Amino acid sequence: MQQPLIWLVEDEISIAETLIYMLSQEGFAVKAFERGLPALEEARRQTPALAILDVGLPDISGFELCRQLLTQHPSLPVLFLTARSDEVDKLLGLEMGADDYVAKPFSPREVCARVRTILRRMQKSTLPSAIVRIGHFELNEPAAQINWCGEPLILTRYEFLLLKTLLHAPGRVFSRQQLMDKVWGEDGDSFDRTVDTHIKTLRAKLRAVNADLSPISTHRGLGYSLGLV
User: Fold this and answer.
1) Which helix or strand (DSSP H or E) is residue 201 part of?
2) Which residues are annotated with the PTM 4-aspartylphosphate (predicted)?
């Protein structure tokens, strides 16, 4: 069985060596980079199962590295490492499409556990199921594709998972915390703005296809629901 390939972009040698050892012991193949730009170059030839990115890299911001990697590989799972635990930084990382965020100092075993959780969640989200039609939507889970009014939506991974969650329970009102748990996972901290930002981008993409229909409803103080308009 092939080992999942993890990319580690970390310029602090002691941290990198510890994580490489722990990840290897956990059954992962690890490719390490001390800079971000070489990782971007390698991304043209190879796609890892998951990327662990230090935010404070010497040549390029970890956030910018994440943005460019996700441009090349939109479904790539990303875990941030940072010396800062500021909520704004964490929120920025999550809104960019990162899966998790660990502040230094951290336990290497915790990082390994989070990597496994992210990969397990990715595997579950791609399990095959029948293509279903829900109102003006068509949900194709095996292809991670949703059509709206006959047009395919170009969605990020989290936009897809968020809209899929709403589609599986039309009319149900989901709180922001419930959506965080279902889409970003139980290990992630809840930030209301993360859900709100993704709902905003989803609405914009739906309006671009059909400006006359607004299927996602806001319930003030409660959360969001999807109606079959």
Assistant:
1) helix 192-209
2) 54
* DSSP code at position 114: H
Concatenate the DSSP letters of all residues of 17-35 into one string: HHHHHHHHHTT-EEEEESS
Q: What is the pLDDT of residue 191?
A: 66
- Residue 151 token pair: 């047009």
Give SS3 for 1: coil
**Which tens digits make up the pLDDT trace of 197-213?**
999 999 999 999 999 99
- In contact, 182 and 169? CB cutoff 8 Å: no
Find where tokens 């635990």 sit: 85
pLDDT at 88: 55
Q: Are strands 145-148 and 100-103 parallel, antiparallel or unpaired?
A: unpaired
CB contact at 8 A, 4 and 76: no
Whole-prediction pTM value? 0.60
Cβ(87)–Cβ(94) below 8 Å: no
Q: 223 - beta bridge partners?
A: 219
Task: Return the residue matching tokens 């279903």.
Answer: 132
Q: Which residues have CB under 8 Å from 225's CB, separation 6+?
A: 166, 170, 171, 172, 173, 174, 216, 217, 219
Q: Enumerate the H helices of 150-189 as residue ranges.
A: 157-167, 176-179
Of 18, 17, 9, residue with least CA distance to 37: 9
Question: What own/partner pairs with CB < 8 Å and gap ≥ 24 does 162-167 have?
Answer: 162/195, 162/198, 162/199, 162/202, 163/202, 163/226, 164/139, 166/216, 166/224, 166/225, 166/226, 167/134, 167/137, 167/139, 167/226
